[in-house]
Amino acid sequence: MRGRFVNDLLESEKRKVRYEFLNLRNKLDALNISSYSGMIFAKVSELPVYANAKTAMFYLSYGSEVFTDPMITAAINAGKTVVVPAITDPQDTKMSAVKLSSVKDANQFVYGIRQPEIDEDNVVTKEEIDVVFVPAIAFDVSGFRTGYGKGYYDRWLEGIPAEKTVGIAFDFQVTDKLPTDEFDLPVGTIVTEKRIIYVHKTRKN
Predict the structure, then answer these.
(1) How far apart are CA 70 and CA 34, in angstroms?
(2) What angle, rounded to 10 degrees, do the helices at 69-77 and 30-44 form?
(3) Which ranges of the chain does DSSP label H, i.e. alpha helix?
(4) Which listed residue, 2, 72, 104, 158, has the most CB atoms within 10 A of its CB?
(5) Does the model's pTM come out above 0.85?
(6) Are strands 81-86 and 55-57 parallel, antiparallel or unpaired?
(7) CB 51 within 8 A of CB 45
(8) DSSP letter, residue 142
(9) pLDDT digit string (tens) for 162-178?
(10) CB-based contact 178:138 (threshold 8 Å)
(11) Phi and psi of 45, rounded to 5°?
(12) Phi then psi for 97, rounded to 5 degrees?
C-alpha cells in the first residue's frame, strides 16, 4: 500500500507540473515560438555533438513546442541523416527512429503528432544515431524531464549515453527540480533561447 501511495503522489506531482508548464507554453504566440525556436537552433548549431553528428534524431513539433521543422530542413540540407520518432501501434509503448528526407513526408498522425510511414528500410537503430533531441513539457537543471506521461521517450532512451541527448525547450520550461522516479533518465545537455546547460551527468546504462 505504501508503494502505491508513493507512486500516486508522484504522479499527482507530475500532473501538476504538466498543467503548470503546459499552460505557460500555450500562452506563447506563433511569432514568439518561431523567434525563440530560431535562437535555440543557433545555439544547437554550436554544440560539437550536433556539428559532428552524421545522424541526428529530431522530434516533429506539436502544438506550442519548440518549432523543429526549420531545424530538420537545415540538418538535411547540411547532409546529415535525419530520423524522427514513429509509433507503429498506439496501444504499444515502443517507438522507432525513422529516416526523414523532408518534413513533407511526415503525413501520418498518431496522437495528433506527425510521423512518416514506417517500413523495414527506413528504421534506424539507436547505435547509428549520434545525437538525440528530446522534447519535454519541463526540464530541471539536472537534466530530468517531465513529458506527456506516455513513457515513450523514457523507454526509448534506455541504453543511449547521456552525452548524446539534448533537451530543447523555452527557457521558462527549465526549473530547479522536478519530481522523478527510478525510471526517469536525464539528458546530457539542455538548450534554450537564452542558454546552454551542460548537465555533465553520466547515465548508468
Answers:
(1) 10
(2) 40
(3) 2-26, 30-44, 48-51, 69-77, 152-156
(4) 72
(5) yes
(6) parallel
(7) yes
(8) T
(9) 999 999 999 999 999 99
(10) yes
(11) -65, -20
(12) -105, 120
